[in-house]
Write a structure and sequence with these properties.
192 residues, mainly alpha
Length: 192
């Protein structure tokens, strides 16, 4: 079942990454005509890293032999939420005169609202892997998920530029630290 389902998940994550990378590529092409915003760029990198990490972490589901329709739709919805989160960072098409600072703040509530949903969905996805003995829940996970949720809510309720400057960097550091110290890092070495 996972091979079949893995294709669907791969397509959804691939579309999310394609949208982000296409947006970055277009931004580079129009670098003399658009107004990039460093906070927006850091969030783009954050979501690329997160999407890749979650895509990689989906590999543990290969051990689940019996899938229910409910769990199938939940995991698919989780992937779709990540796609929607990524999609909010760049317009489908953008003119050479886009101001990405204005664009980011105009879409801030959607970005952080969907981000909050993504992290709320991550909790049952991660815990279920642990309950089914597909992988242990990493020890720092409770602290990390609370940190992500707090940052999501703060980003949702404030438009303060200084706060958003801190949030994007703090989020990146928390993500990289978690990936380095969690069991996700051990996949690369063939461990569990």
């Amino acid at each position: 079942m996972f091979d079949y389902f893995g294709v669907l998940i791969s397509i959804i994550f691939g579309l999310a990454l394609t949208h982000l990378l296409r947006g970055l590529g277009r931004l580079i092409q129009l670098r003399h005509q658009v107004r990039p915003y460093w906070v927006h760029l850091v969030w783009t990198i954050n979501i690329v890293i997160f999407a890749l990490a979650i895509w990689w972490g989906m590999y543990w589901w290969k051990e689940l032999l019996s899938w229910t329709a409910l769990w199938f739709f939940f995991i698919a919805a989780y992937a779709i939420a990540i796609f929607m989160w990524a999609y909010m960072l760049f317009p489908q098409e953008f003119a050479p005169d886009v101001d990405f600072e204005a664009y980011f703040y105009a879409n801030r509530r959607w970005i952080f609202g969907i981000q909050t949903v993504v992290f709320l969905m991550d909790i049952p996805e991660t815990l279920r892997k642990g309950l089914l003995h597909l992988r242990p829940v990493p020890a720092p996970y409770p602290f990390v998920i609370v940190g992500f949720l707090l940052m999501s809510v703060v980003g949702l309720i404030t438009a303060n530029r200084r706060v958003h400057s801190v949030l994007c960097v703090l989020w990146l550091l928390l993500t990289l630290g978690y990936l380095f110290f969690s069991s996700l890092a051990r996949i690369a070495h063939g461990g569990s």
